[in-house]
């Protein structure tokens, strides 16, 4: 799984986030919590580590933990993920989980360019992400500004812009970009 997920180019100098999910065996949650605290402490010792947190399951019938791991750059994340220290921790993890861990790496705009039910192998080229994002922002901002102008015209300009951009970002994140990614899938991911 690691080889499939870590294909972002090594020339990335921007912050990178790894999203790691573990489905914990019923009754092994306490052991997993102890394991998580141990591996998190060791991860902090690695160059470029910016933080780690976990999202605990809300539904105990499907105990999936999501670990959010941040590093300052891709190379430092890769060093940690491929380290002997981490491999030892992953060996200790095996009796606690039901299936192999899942890892996705994200560095920025590609979070808007993930395909539904598909692992993120590598993001599209930045120029393609920029073009599709520009199209999405242009269309969304134009429509939202026109629709909200009569309602927000009496508000102070900063409040007007705050409300307009907030709505635009929400629409882009949850409605527009997922649809544009599907629409331009063949262009964004020609080898997919």
From TrEMBL:
This is Antibiotic biosynthesis monooxygenase. InterPro entries: ABM_predict, Dimeric_a/b-barrel. The chain crosses the membrane at residues 131-152, 158-177. Gene3D superfamilies: 3.30.70.100. GO terms for molecular function: monooxygenase activity. Keywords: Membrane, Monooxygenase, Oxidoreductase, Transmembrane, Transmembrane helix. It comes from Drouetiella hepatica Uher 2000/2452.
């Amino acid at each position: 799984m690691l080889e499939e997920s870590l294909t972002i180019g090594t020339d990335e100098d921007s912050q990178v986030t790894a999203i790691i999910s573990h489905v914990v065996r019923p009754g092994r949650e306490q052991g997993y919590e102890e394991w998580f605290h141990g591996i998190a402490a060791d991860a902090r010792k690695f160059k470029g580590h910016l933080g780690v947190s976990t999202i605990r399951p809300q539904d105990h019938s499907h105990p999936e933990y999501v670990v959010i791991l941040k590093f300052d750059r891709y190379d430092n994340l890769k060093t940690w993920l491929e380290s002997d220290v981490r491999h030892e921790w992953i060996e200790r993890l095996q009796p606690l989980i039901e299936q192999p861990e899942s890892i996705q790496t994200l560095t920025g705009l590609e979070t808007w360019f993930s395909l539904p039910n598909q692992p993120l192998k590598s993001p599209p080229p930045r120029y393609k992400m920029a073009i599709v994002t520009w199209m999405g922002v242009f269309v969304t901002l134009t429509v939202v500004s026109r629709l909200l102008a009569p309602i927000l015209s009496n508000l102070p300009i900063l409040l007007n812009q705050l409300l307009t951009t907030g709505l635009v970002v929400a629409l882009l994140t949850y409605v527009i970009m997922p649809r544009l990614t599907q629409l331009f899938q063949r262009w964004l991911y020609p080898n997919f």
